[in-house]
Amino acid sequence: MIAPMFPITPLLPELQTVLASKSRLVLEAPPGAGKTTQVPLALRDAPWLDGKKIVMLEPRRIAARAAAQFMAQQLGEPIGQTVGYRIRFESKVGAATRIEVVTEGILTRLIQADPELTGIGAILFDEFHERHLAGDLGAALALDIQHTLRPDLRIVVMSATLDGERIAQWLDAPRISSPGRSFPVRIEYPPARTQESTEQHLVRVTRQALEENEGDILAFLPGRREIARVQGMMHALQRDDLEVVALHGELSLAEQQLALAAAEGGMRRIVLATNVAESSVTLPGIRVVIDAGLAREPRFDPNSGFTRLETLSISQASADQRAGRAGRVAEGAAYRLWPQSRRLDASRTAEIMQVELSGLALELAAWGSAELPWLDPPPAGALAQARELLIRLGALDAQQRITALGRRMLELGATPRLAAAALRAPEALHALVADLLALMDARSPLRGEQARSDDFRTRVSALHAWRDRRSATGSGHAADAGALAAIEQASKGWRQRLNLRSAASGMPHSHAVGDLLLHAFPDRIARQDEGNPLRYTLANGRGARLHEQTALLGEPWLVVLDLRHEARDSLVLSAAPLDPRVLEQDYPEQFRRVRNVRWSEGRAAVEAFEEHRFGAIVLERRSVPVQAEDAVPALLAAIRQRGLDGLPWSEAARRLRLRMQSLREWMPELGLPDVSEAHLLATLEDWLGPYLQNKRKLDALSEDELSQALAALFDYEQRKQLDAQAPDSLTVPSGQARRLEYSPGEPPVLAVKLQELFGLADTPRVAGGRVPVTLHLLSPAGRPIQVTQDLHGFWERTYPEVKKELKGRYPKHPWPEDPWTATPTHRAKPRGT
DNA sequence: CTCTCCCT
């Protein structure tokens, strides 16, 4: 079979030559260049391979299978001979396999299982520009291996974007660029009208695009909500030759295929898609792309421990990739719905920078080496949070070393949370565990009314009903048969890994699912609040609520599997009820009896309780007598409730605090103490606690004591700096001292009569000249005339006007022609006359 | 009540 010509084909000899002498290479090639299939084939007999095989990392299973298939076909062999692939629960490799295409998790397992990479001569990272977590980790590990154990290992990073320069610098590697094979795409930026929503804009541009172009249209939107809205609005186009279809990841395979199929005769197709259409599916017949320029990306917040989705502007690389979709079959057009002047980021933020990192942290603990040659190192905050979770799950010990359980979790190959739950489950429930691993990993197979169910058990019973009858509609479940078949396939894989013969049918009791999964989410155990059946408190102290049509009404205990983070409390999207006796048995250390002292504003008194808690959840609370040692904590609680203003501030102390806080902001290099309200409230124990000893009531604290407590926060040197750089008052040219009013975040205000400033050319400044004072210029009667930070400009431009106007009203006061040299005064008549 | 994509 003669190899077909690809755009990359002429570059293959150069690739060979470079790799003969260099162990690392960056290959830049746009989609359609043929790099995925032609590079491995070209390298398979390279002398430096020395009989070892090539491993190629592919970010998606479909792509891994397809690439292997294509290469085998080109060799005229069945798959599993020279070319094979390995994805989870599926392996098509043989003894003769020289090119092995693997997905991301497989590569990590391969490396961890044998850090010398015996029998592997080269690793190719395809689609590296997508910057998936596992790709970054795999590359860092491969580089580490090359530095230490295997200098002969070849590492080839293949990327579709222009970020190649940065990657080449990181790898210290030469760079080869290949042209792609696509048709020219005309780019337009039709502007939005004022008050026009993105959706309205998109519909209007669709109308325009239909007139200006032939062929089908692919429109990119950030999510399902926007797709549904636009779908509704398309009727406004009032054309009956249009077929509008949605395409997003939540659709079943059959529904996706419907979107991918070409339109029927005479009809023009408009595909409204999310990011799935950017890289994961190929769409035939597209001639026009309309791009809203938005995408949803997950952001993990290590402080709250939650991930939320944010709608963000896409990168330039992504915009180009999207536009390229219009040029695959013929020349096309792309309409971008953002202003041409907007600067997009060059490429998308690496996943490692913004996702939850427990899986990565566990891999790093197993690897043992602390420092890896990252392109972008994992953020310290997220890594610390991940390690805390791993300790909680039992995967790391207190010194953050991997435990035996942690190693077994890695071997199992599920996420750390789910692996922990699986490995703690009693053997009798392993068949159910396999189902839970498969279901937790997949999108919900439920359709229709039940798709909205927040009771995770509904999915489990749908799987069981389908398994028993091989029917997606049995037992009143409306479910997607294709999705269920895929879930069953995964469950079968987990059963094999757990050494089980048969599948689960039915649940042993109503709490079984929750009792198993609570070990995966010990921080997300929730207890129903008193008084409101929809509100819950999570073990981590946060609030959560069920939606109004919940299927979980009345369950006192839940383990929350999925929730959407909201400002006040979070919405439970998926949960399962549990039996609290399991908590008592498995987490006895989390149950505590604590004494809680608080201030009751209503009763203006100290109250003391003894509470029985699970984490932050209060199970039982009873009043106990208030004791002497309760007083200080209660008074501090009262202050926290009332705020700093509730304290007896003298005028001097109040001004001192504001000056100190302002100067700290203006001159951070002085290292002044933080006296902001937030910090003072947070540290009350330290600075005010000593002054509250032996006090029972808040008003027993005097102004003097409070002033002393504040003054004790800074030393003599700091006080001297304060008086020099943020003085309490300024002496103005008239010889009078005038107060400066400080207010954090703003320049200080000096209110002064105009006449007192005669002779002063420029605005006075504080903080070593960094901050000009805001002048409130007053009339002789003390009425405001002008607010300015530019005294020079005032004298020059505004003063002549002001003078004209005020001279008549205040004839006894001086209004000189030349304020620069006039004698300043605060009296009616200038001194000495 | 409406959440992108993907993987061991």
Q: Could you provide a short overview of the structure?
A:
This protein has 833 residues and is α/β, with parallel strands linked by helices. It is built from 28 helices and 31 strands.
Description:
This is ATP-dependent helicase HrpB. Keywords: ATP-binding, Helicase, Hydrolase, Nucleotide-binding. GO terms for molecular function: ATP binding; helicase activity; hydrolase activity; nucleic acid binding. The protein is α/β, with parallel strands linked by helices. Among the domains are: 9-177, P-loop containing nucleotide triphosphate hydrolases (Rossmann fold, 3-Layer(aba) Sandwich), CATH 3.40.50.300; 185-349, P-loop containing nucleotide triphosphate hydrolases (Rossmann fold); 597-726, no CATH class; 729-807, no CATH class. It is built from 28 helices and 31 strands. The protein is globular. It starts with 11 loop residues before the first helix and ends in a 26-residue tail after the last helix. It binds one DNA strand of 8 nucleotides through residues 59-61, 87-88, 103-109, 130, 132-134, 222-225, 228, 248-250, 274-276, 278-280, 295-298, 308-309, 311, 351, 359, 410, 412-415, 441, 452, 454, 547-549, 562, 564, 571, 573.
